[in-house]
UniProtKB/TrEMBL annotation:
<keyword id="KW-0597">Phosphoprotein</keyword>
<dbReference type="InterPro" id="IPR050482">
    <property type="entry name" value="Sensor_HK_TwoCompSys"/>
</dbReference>
<dbReference type="GO" id="GO:0016301">
    <property type="term" value="F:kinase activity"/>
</dbReference>
<keyword id="KW-0547">Nucleotide-binding</keyword>
<keyword id="KW-0808">Transferase</keyword>
<dbReference type="Pfam" id="PF07730">
    <property type="entry name" value="HisKA_3"/>
</dbReference>
<dbReference type="InterPro" id="IPR011712">
    <property type="entry name" value="Sig_transdc_His_kin_sub3_dim/P"/>
</dbReference>
<feature type="domain" description="Signal transduction histidine kinase subgroup 3 dimerisation and phosphoacceptor">
    <location>
        <begin position="21"/>
        <end position="85"/>
    </location>
</feature>
<keyword id="KW-0902">Two-component regulatory system</keyword>
<protein>
    <recommendedName>
        <fullName>histidine kinase</fullName>
        <ecNumber>2.7.13.3</ecNumber>
    </recommendedName>
</protein>
<keyword id="KW-0418">Kinase</keyword>
<keyword id="KW-0067">ATP-binding</keyword>
<dbReference type="InterPro" id="IPR036890">
    <property type="entry name" value="HATPase_C_sf"/>
</dbReference>
Length: 215
């Protein structure tokens, strides 16, 4: 049986390798597929203004579908690897992601911060982005709600992130046994010395708190 530290090192290595591959795929989506779709979109807009009136409604539908597809590709690229995370920091990356998230899923997310942002290690920034991303994905898929809120509290003793939705809630203990997403959040936070606390009440919503000590 592998010792806890060895298992932790293996998990950390696997996550790091996954992030490098996701970064590569995200770049290909943005620079390749995304640019091609945008070229097609602008071409369809040009054609739309010159087609026979009987085809105009069809072209409008196709243009709207293309626009929606571009939006989805952009969100997917950011989900795979947020470009602003390294250059501008965690808060800027989250703000950019939330704009795409709301336009894609129709869920309004109130974003609040307190205190001064502290420069984090790259591993910490990526982990915190990933767990917030997972929590938001769960809200979109399971919560059955149109609003949520996120609070980043930068305090001398640590960073505390609270994500709340106002949906239908769930049984946390039962869900932990068969939800890899929830387990992944707990494991990822543990790998950077942080913690993840999940609470939920039926028809009252769910709260997830991530905490990380600031050294």
């Amino acid at each position: 049986m592998k010792a806890p530290l060895e298992r932790e090192n293996i998990s950390s290595y696997i996550i790091q390798a996954q992030e490098l591959e996701l970064k590569r795929i995200a770049l290909e989506l943005h620079e390749g597929v995304g640019q091609t779709l945008y070229s097609l979109y602008t071409g369809m807009q040009l054609i739309e203004g010159n087609v026979d009136p009987s085809m105009k409604s069809f072209m409008e539908e196709m243009t709207q579908l293309m626009e929606k597809t571009i939006q989805e590709v952009r969100l997917l690229a950011v989900e795979l690897h947020p470009p602003t995370l390294t250059t501008l920091g965690l808060l800027s990356a989250m703000k950019s992601y939330l704009k795409l998230y709301t336009s894609t899923y129709g869920i309004e997310v109130e974003f609040n911060t307190s205190g001064d942002e502290v420069q984090l290690l790259e591993k910490e920034r990526m982990t915190l982005f990933r767990v917030c991303q997972e929590a938001l994905a769960n809200i979109a898929i399971h919560a059955d709600t149109i609003r949520a809120d996120i609070t980043f509290a930068w305090e001398p003793k640590g960073l505390f992130i609270l994500i709340r939705d106002f949906g239908k809630g769930f049984d946390v203990e039962a869900a932990m046994d068969h939800s890899p997403g929830l387990a992944s959040m707990v494991e990822r936070m543990g790998l950077i010395g942080g913690s993840c606390t999940i609470s939920s009440k039926h028809q009252e919503g769910t709260s997830i708190e991530f905490s990380l000590s600031l050294k």
